[in-house]
Known about the structure:
Elements: H1 2-20, H2 23-42, H3 48-89, H4 95-102, H5 105-129, H6 137-147, H7 150-163, H8 165-169, E1 177-179, H9 187-195, E2 200-201, H10 214-221, E3 231-232, E4 240-241, H11 251-257, H12 276-293, E5 301-305, H13 313-319, E6 324-329, H14 332-352, H15 354-362, H16 392-408, E7 415-418, H17 419-424, H18 426-437, H19 442-446, H20 467-483
Parallel strand pairs: 1-5, 1-6, 2-5, 6-7
Antiparallel strand pairs: 3-4
Helix pairs in contact: 1-3, 1-4, 2-3, 2-7, 14-15, 14-16, 16-20
Amino acid sequence: MSAWIGAVILVAVFSVLIQRMGLAEQANAVMTVAFDSIGIIGSSELSDDEKEVGLQKNSLKLLGLFFKIVFSGALALLVPMGIVWLGDQLGLLSLEAVLNVLISPPFLIVSGLLLLGLYIALRRKSQAKSDAYHYSAVDQALHRVAFKTYTTQASFADIEDRVFSKQLDLCQSSRPVFITALPRAGTTLLLECLATLPEFATHCYRDMPFVLLPCFWNRYSRAFQRDVRRQERAHGDGMEIDVDSPEALEEIIWKTFWTRHYKENLIIPWSGDRNPSFEVFFRSHMRKIILLRRRSGDTARYVSKNNANIARTEVLRGLFPDAAIVIPFRNPFHHAMSLLQQHHNFLAIHERDSFASEYMAAIGHYDFGQNLRPINFDGWLDHRQSPDAESLNFWLEYWIASYRHLLNEAYSTLSFVNYDRLCQDPEGGLRRLAEVIHTKDVEALTAQKVQIGRPRSKQIDMSTIHPSLRHEASGIYDQLSAAACF
């Protein structure tokens, strides 16, 4: 009996030490560095010298991780063995007997079943505890590996293209629809209205975390992905989501191929930039989303909601002359107040949940909270009146800079939608939207009017807004209303 007790102690102490010393995290780090090295080798954007520097850095990281794993593993094994050896020296048990028990079939079977039961119990507890944020500890670890390997994923996309070439040949990326605006303008609602139609295909939460390899990830994850009950999203705006809900994940692609536009505290707008590698990848990626989401024999049309696309409408129009670019807008004062409230909301979320902040930054959602990186339209951040992002004036200035920039473009190629009017007349607004995007089933789209309700009323102290900003915002709103398709 003492031999069994010694064997249990040895396994228990070994397991605890492995967890405490972070061996699993270190193994994940090795995978991340290895994948990153593969991405560096296959990158077309890096010079040979840059590749050499990157690989040398990764070699040093791997060497450091090797010594950590060896040291941690040896310590995790030697400590419990030392405890059993001490028991042997004191005559409390036999080291030889303990080792014989460890390799005996009964002990292996019983300990294996107990560890499996413990793992299942801990996973359920982790999932229940993390329900508010949708991700268990295991899920978070997997996401962190994906977040650090975007360049590698993009490199492997060529292999995915070849594996699924026959199916992808049947999918066309013609007549895409891009829904974009500042956040809180109704972009998510418009996306959900279109995503319900079989004609359209979009990203959804199931595509996380390996977004850049959607076909491989869909095939691999099908066996273990679990359904999650619908629940309100983190914005606290009453909209419910599940794993099949459409989600804005397209920004990951732009981040991966256009790194120079993403500064520490702002995003630089695009101005007719070209990136051939991005263009090839993006067109192929759109076909993959269509392949995964189409629900009828006909090929579907790609539709995305990406707020940051307001910084690159010229690039989108150059790539896809047949695209519909839909830009909703709202009363600027109500919109700015909604932006400010969400900024406060996400500051609180990021403060209490570091993974939420990490997740949002990784998918390129720099709209609010600790991750805030405003788009610097026409250099407005350099001469703004309100430096504090926790003031209403800051967000109104952001609104003015954004929509003034869009109006100054060739806005005849953009389809502005007055969200306030849409809420007042959902059927009329959706019918007009159907004409703008040339959808096949107008009635199916107008049937989505049941999703559209009146926005929540907000009390705004107009006296806190600078008079010049009030005047300019009202003027731009009038121009948008005159240019709107509805």
